[in-house]
Amino acid sequence: MPRKNSSEPLIDGIQKSGLVQPGVRLLVAVSGGPDSTALLVAMHELGFDITAAHFDHALREGSEKVAEQVGTLCTGLNVELVAERRDSPMPRGSVQAAARALRYEFLGRARGRTGAQAVALAHTADDLVEGAALHLMRGCGLAGLRGMPASRGAYVRPMLEVWRSEVVEFLEKRGVSAYEDPANADLKFARARLRHQILPELERDRPGIRRRFFAAARQASATQEAIEVQAQAVLVAGPPARWEVARMPQPVAVELIKLLYAHAGGSLPALSRRHLASMLDLARGGRGGRGVDLPCGLRFRIVGHHMEVIPTADRLAQVRSVPQLDVRECLGCDDPEAAHLRPDLSVRVGFRQPGLRMRPAGGRGSRKLQDILVDARVPREARDSWPLVFAGDQLAWVPGITVDADLASVAGQPALHVAISPMPDRWTPKVARLETPNSPRGESS
Q1: Does 32 lie in the same domain as 131?
Q2: Whole-number CA gyration radius for the chain
Q3: Which of 25, 310, 334, 397 has the smallest number of Cβ neighbours within 10 A?
Q4: For residue 384, which phi and psi values (nearest 5 degrees)?
Q5: What average pLDDT does range 74-96 have in this prediction?
Q6: Are residues 269 and 299 both part of a single domain?
Q7: For residue 273, what are the contacts with CB-CB under 8 A and spacing of at least 6?
Q8: How confident is the model at residue 442 (pLDDT cuts 50, 70, 90)?
């Protein structure tokens, strides 16, 4: 069990965050740098059930030595380590953005592999200040001013109240050394210039300004979280009445539109101010038949009285060619993105064809696939490209929706763990839909 009443700022900061509770199985992302090394050591000392995860981006010579150093640390702590090294070309575009995307994809896989309930990231108060300052320099709204949220989905940042100087002190006290990434001092990167030049100059001119930046970012975070809660409540309650979007405060309306985009499979943050403004204009009274093209192969449009986010034709074609099955034996886990089927089955992936039926788990009797997709609000345009898992000729699983009751495994007994790769939230042609101000509550297309 985690101990209490520590005199060390880093330990106190983690406990004060309240982001990780006793009994939670935790995956700790470890780059090998001081912050993540300190987080791993601290979570181990606090007695949490942890597994370490290290991803080698293979971007610079000698990166494998960092992986070895992380492995040595984990061995000394008697902590399990899940590690991977990039073996494919880097995606096009920003190296930093591509590396971040690959890292999070790895952490998602590692979480599923280990059954972890949360992933701990080692961002500190300094990272929060730097992130907020960078966003301000580029021009941002409230969400950018907060720097980074303390938690998002399964990802938590329990060291956001801890300063980098306290990390150094923590490691020195234990005689633990960590890898110093040279990129952190490379002034060709904006963050490095901010860290080593701009913020120190500001601090010299206005002592304490880092902590004032920090306080402002935390206040912005609290306000942004309140807005997100309001938007999520609207989405959960069902399509809003026709007057609600028009009368909704703009920050809540914008967040609601962002949620629509995310629920349709879009990645955040990806929407520009122009995207959001155009979508909001249409939602508040634009004529039907028009739309806005969005990142990730999605399109926002008005159809009748509804506004919706759907995949474009190009995305649908890409989606149909991508899905692959990941099948393994399983003694039972709570992976929400997998199906657990009878272990004697031979499964394959396919698509919709006439006459398909199944008996959905938790339901009554057999149902047409068409009716299942309609009830799940899968748009007509996406139904032919929605991947399906078959056992022979029998429909076994509609990913993200339901599994066949006759083919599902029995709880507590060996099962066939079946997942679609890439994960459904990256490619599934979902549609997210709300009614526009001209639509009465409850009306559907």
Answers
A1: yes
A2: 24
A3: 334
A4: -70, -20
A5: 87
A6: yes
A7: none
A8: very low
Interval 268-296: pLDDT, tens: 777 888 888 888 888 777 554 568 888 87
376 confidence band (pLDDT: 50, 70, 90): confident
Domain containing 386 equals 323-421
Residue 366 backbone phi and psi in degrees, to 5? -90, 145
Peptide bond into 422 cis (omega under 30): yes
Contact 340, 409 (CB under 8 A): yes
Q: Is the pLDDT of residue 75 over 60?
A: yes
pLDDT tens-digit readout, 149-160: 898 888 999 999
CATH number, domain at 102?
3.40.50.620
Domain count, the chain: 3
Single-letter residue type at 190: A
Stretch (H or E) spanning 95: helix 95-114
The answer to whether residues 315 and 331 belong to one domain is no
Q: Are residues 350 and 308 in the same domain?
A: no
Q: Are residues 442 and 369 in the same domain?
A: no
Cβ-contact 202, 194 below 8 angstroms: no
The verdict on 258 and 396 lying in the same domain is: no
Structure tokens at 313: 């034709």
CB atoms within 10 A of CB 80: 12
